[in-house]
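Ticket #4471: structure output looks truncated?

Reporter: J.K.
Steps to reproduce: submitted the chain below (224 residues) through the standard prediction queue, then opened the result file.
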Amino acid sequence: MGTVWPVFGQVVAATADSLTVSVKPPPARRPRAKRGEAPAPAAAPAEAPPPVQHVFALSKDATEIAFAEVRREMMMADGTTLRIFASPDPATAADLKPGVSVEVTAKDGAASRVIIPWGTPGVLERVAADSVTFRPRPANAGAADGVPPEQTLKAGEGATEVTFEATTSSVRAPGGQVMQKQVRFQRGSFADLKPGQNVVVCVKDGAAVKIRVVEPEPGRQGVN
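Returned output as attached by the reporter:
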């Protein structure tokens, strides 16, 4: 195996020195029409190719394993997705449990970096001295599954890192979609958490390790 660009998939199995990941191939690209030619009619959706399993070598000294938040995703011309990660936290091979999503960067079959995406957006429902209850936001606004159930997680002062994110300026498309924004981050405390806040919660082993409070933009309070 030669150089491998980052691949994204789900963990099938992992040991201290090996990682098996199931990766869905990107969708087939639709051929572009030549200049002066009419676009070809849309073809019937092709059957998705089956996932492909990749096996990577892990090294305690040469493989970085971390949790990190996905701050931006961009669709590339080849159908793959480029993910920009931020705020990494150290992880170990023991965190690579079957079913966990990972992005692996490797060369010649050896993984140099394994990122475990974390961070679930939602709304705080209740805050206690040793726990928080939040309701994750639906992955799709029109999802037929209804409202996701609440999650109660272990949390507390000294055990949960709290950060506030505030948008200082933004550029919007005519339809209102945010195209670019500038934000500032400020460290908070567990006592700053209140029901009703929009949050991004990073969870590990049933505990809220990080909570990022996303403050509404100036002049857009109450706007979804």
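Triage note (M.O.): checked the attachment and the full token line is present. Residues 3-26+50-117 form one domain.
Status: closed, working as intended.
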